[in-house]
## 1
Amino acid sequence: MDRDEPNPLLGIALKVSSVLVFVAMSTFIKSAGDGIATGQITFYRSAFAMVPILCYLAVKGDLATAFKTRDPFGHLIRGFIGILAMSCGFYGLTHLPLPEAIAIGYAMPLLAVVFAAVFLKEVVRIYRWSAVIVGLVGVMIITYPRLTLFAGGGGEAGAAYGALAVLLSAALGATAMVLVRKLVMNERTHTIVLYFSLSASLFSLLTLPFGWEPLTWRAFLFLMAAGFCGGVAQLLLTQSYRYADMSTIAPFEYTSIVLGLVIGYWLFDDVPTVTMLIGTAIVISAGIFIILREHRLGLERRAARKHVTPQG
């Protein structure tokens, strides 16, 4: 991806905007109402996301090249894993309070560190491993009250399965991140974004015989808005990386929990529990530690390269 002139404040503004729109997407999905099949939600989210993406590519003059790919099979696998992650996440979102679903989803970047070490052979040192372990402990603190149902501790079955679904979504999402890391070596960013929305739409159509129902106008409009927000948020996120380093903007991902708490309380009467707040604080602390550690290592590597004496 080509980098424009660095502008950290603009990059941060775009990142926060993307987080806001992603939370709006989740809010629209929850507002659509219960009883809508997960595959049906996923289809509308993916199909309508293509509208702003295609418009953006057309304006930029990149529409013709966006469909050209060197790795169609890679896009297919990434799309399949991504659609599974999205479906699990939407199932959990419709069965959990909004801030709780957001907080459990923070397990994804932690698991991505583990998967990158295992599958991409990236070097992960003791500091990052320690932060990952602490962060995952925080995730377990958040989910434990829900999972006690399976140990005979009572609770609502829907919420318990919702917590497991979001955990599975985080694991699948981390896998998709690893696949994207491989794709970006040979593919353009807008090609990856476009093919994911396209493949997700097609894969979700396969669930048509399994519980799809006619939608009310209210539900249709909410799901259409969710899809449009998903596409806009993806574009904002992609643009944010053009103006600022990832280590600069990544911590602002955690503004989503603040938005989730406010919207959850205001629209859905979701009151956070003490264990959820404690677990969330642990997860966020671990995530920010990893980001700052990577930023410091990046500075050290750049400084080392500057001091290397040319040979010859």
## 2
Amino acid sequence: MRTIYRKWSEYPYPGEQEPPKGSAAPGYWSMFFIEKGTNGQFLDLSGRVITWSIKHPNTVNWGSELALLEQTLHAQTNQHIQIAKYWGTGEVAAKMNSLAYSLAEAYRYGSPETARMTAYLNAAIHDTCVITWMLKYKWDVARPNQYGHSLPTVLFTPRFPSYPSAHATISGCAEAVLTYFFPAYSARIQEIVREAALSRFYAGVHFQADNDEGLRLGRQIGNIALRELGAGQT
């Protein structure tokens, strides 16, 4: 399929002469809950073909996405900047694990329950990273700073393709798993996850579509993992 959007591997970042280079290696790692089939298909552990819950980038209006981002960045608030910096400092997977441990303490989990919960959480996040990196490099969508506009970004732009946002996919996955184990805190978990994804938009390093579609994809992968517990959505 011919792409109708700007590619990450073809445009330099501001102040640079050559397009960025990254590593697609995580997209080829083996997974815990997902298997690679033939002809580019992916299967769950029951052998069912997975159709990913994410729009093809050809269907996204990237011009409108850029305009929305520019408008937001030029009307940035201190709260938005604080959110961007908080979630941009350290790894989002580590922050989701910190959340998981605090919830386990609130639920008075013992060591066996905590180990089981974190095993499912981190195996699901691992698979989410694999699929995210596979799609990032397959689709090769440019970052906002590659459109020749002077964007007042809050953080540096990562050196890998934009779509989907890894912050969003990891957060969406964590939401699915953590709301299963800790249903009494579902509303709070969802609030935290939305903020984590939105932080990348506030930082100026992702489009809104990167986040919205990333959350959908991450939730799907989290539920694929939960099916092994007999608890996920089918």
## 3
Amino acid sequence: MIKSVLISTSWIFCILLLITMFPVIAESASVSLTEESFDNRTCFECHDGREVIKVLDTSPYAENGEKRDLVAIPPNLYATGVHARMLCTDCHHHIVHLQPPHQAEGLKKVDCASCHEALAQSGEQKAHAPPSPGNEKVRSNIKKYRSSFHARPNRDNPDFPNATCHECHDSHFFSIPMDQGSPAYGRWRLTINKLCGKCHEDQIEEYDVSVHGIALKDKGNLKSATCIDCHTAHEVTGAHLEVFKLQSPDTCGHCHQARKKTYRSFYHGQMTKIGFSETAKCYDCHGSHKIFSAKDPRSLVHPKNRLKTCQKCHDGQRRPLATEGFASFSPHDDAMDYDQAPQLWIAARFMNVLEWVVFVFFSLHTVLWWYREWRERRNETGSSGLAMSGLKMEEGSRHFQRFPLVWRVAHLLFALVVMILLLTGMILFNTESSWAPALVRLLGGAAKLGFVHHVMAVLLVSIFLLHIVHVLQHLFRKKGFDWFGPDSLLPNRKDFTDCIDMFRWFVGRGEKPRFDRWTYYEKFDYWAVFWGVAVIGSSGAILAFPHIAGEYMGGWVFNVSIKLHGEEAFLAAVFLFTVHFSNNHFRPSKLPPPDVVMFTGSLSLEELQRDHPAQLERIRAKGELDSYLVEKPSVAMVLGSKLLGLLLLATGLVLLFMAVSGYTW
């Protein structure tokens, strides 16, 4: 009996002990279950998408009590993403409860950027841990994103950005195929526009019917442009911003390289390249999303629509009104394609031939002359030596007046204007050079340079016309002037024979010609100005008043004028700063430079006898030498002239470097 009671008592004690310990055991079991259950399989029990589950919508856009579908993450798709080996709570670290609501506080957005940056920092702290290429790429994209339009606060809800990483990438399934030739990469390309279209519905509707959309979706051309090809994936900016406008030709040119090249060859492309955003870009003429073939009647550049398209900018208010002739301008004419642009092809070939003839002839002339003088100076012999025989003592101490004051002033002004024109103009024709955009910014921008260029052009033409008036007035006042005599700048037979004799002297086959007042190379310099001003001036006038020129001559004249204007300016720059400088400043008999006769107006009789012996003999024979003699220029005048000459020489050589380095051969 006692034994039975003891057994019963023991059982009762055990039962009471179990009852007492149950809360502790239950809590321990609960904690253990919770810790073990925070794996992805537990999350997928509700979030696998097999059934639609409605939950309270806590987003800032939801109305009170509104419900939404629970986010569905099919496990098989999650397994294909780059985050497949991560736990859900690695990103959703604010989740602390197994049962909903999972988070202790309100709904929080996952911050992809902070996670990847922390990952990189932890790797950097390990001395032997090289940076992950994948994570470095992500960090680079994060930096781009934070300065983009998508990262800005949303207008309707400033607490949230316009777009997050997850909204574009879907971090649960994110996996971009690296092999661009793989079928998977092609399938991914086809999803890009649909993804962007979730927010940009109107733009996608236009894109779908465009040449790009049809080529991609209907024809399966995976090289056709998608949203990110034009707007980029992470550096998305507003299309109204200057940075987007200036970059757009390069963006389009990534696929349309030939069109980009021709666009850059003419005014719109040239101005854009040097940083002026107010000229037409690709999308101004062709459209942005709704782009059609130029042969399609819906295209903005179709012949029936082209005038209206041009008048968007050339509207008669900001710019002169575009006319039918103006609108026939083709911004993509190729100077190498005769069938496409015969007038431009002829102009380009003409200028190429002219440049080669001038450069080859005068390069040979300059090199041979320099070598002959150098050899004579080394041997201290030759007909170019200074001979003082026959000169009176008082004559040797005075100078010969070669250029009157009006000529010297005109020459100086002309030189300054030409240099400024070359500086401001060569920038436009050498936009592919490394120095052009930087120089534009340094000088105040493209608009200011254009204004300066136009002012200088007016001054150049004015100086040129005043010179012609002055010369004609002088000729008509001078009775019995010999138009082909030694005082005339018109070419004559002696100039041709002198040129031939000069080459014979270069190679030691004859004596040096005895030049009179004007040499054949000086006459060439003089008349080259007439040719240059005529070509550059007329083409410049056409470009300055395109609405008038286009109305009466047609749009083809713009491309021809641009070609002539640029090529003739290049020819002038190279000729002036090589041949002209060498003839007048860098020949051995002229060293050290500069020769200042064009600034002082006079030269010694020794120099006159060396360079123009026939003139000196002729004047002395007539007994007129005294009327040409003047006092030697003062030391201050000579010093100032040399400093000015050195400055102009240095400027010219810099301009020469700019012209040659930026020229497209």
